């Protein structure tokens, strides 16, 4: 489904378009849309005067996806640290939770740096 949206010139398709092009059920499209929307890879829009929703992507889908992941990781780190504290840092389970929190923190910080670099390079290039 994502590929169908990527290859369209407009970057938008309706559910009916996707059902026809992919030869899948409307329920399959609905489930895929929900997943991709949750990941920040597409958005729903309804142009004025149209009854049908359109699913849209643009050149910043990967940026939004990374930002969504960073937000998710930050929330997860909070929970992991809480669990590590409750289990005790000296227990094997507590150590696993703590290690997981440390890893996700590093990954989120690194991804945020990549996003910042990308945005700076776009600004330097005069991109919108």
TrEMBL record:
The keyword Transcription applies. It comes from the Bacteria. Coiled coil: none annotated. SUPFAM superfamilies: Winged helix' DNA-binding domain (SSF46785). Residues 9-53 form the HTH marR-type domain. InterPro entries: HTH-GbsR_regulator, HTH_MarR-typ, WH-like_DNA-bd_sf, WH_DNA-bd_sf. Keywords: DNA-binding, Transcription, Transcription regulation. Gene3D superfamilies: Winged helix-like DNA-binding domain superfamily/Winged helix DNA-binding domain. This is MarR family transcriptional regulator.
């Amino acid at each position: 489904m994502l590929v169908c949206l990527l290859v369209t010139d407009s970057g938008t398709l309706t559910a009916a378009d996707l059902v026809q092009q992919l030869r899948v059920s409307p329920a399959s499209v609905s489930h895929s849309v929900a997943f991709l929307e949750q990941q920040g890879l597409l958005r729903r829009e309804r142009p004025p005067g149209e009854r049908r929703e359109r699913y849209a992507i643009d050149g910043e889908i990967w940026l939004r996806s990374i930002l969504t992941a960073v937000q998710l990781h930050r929330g997860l780190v909070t929970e992991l640290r809480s669990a590590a504290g409750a289990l005790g840092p000296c227990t094997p389970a507590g150590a696993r939770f703590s290690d997981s929190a440390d890893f996700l923190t590093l990954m989120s910080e690194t991804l945020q740096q990549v996003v910042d670099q990308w945005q700076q390079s776009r600004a330097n290039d005069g991109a919108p």
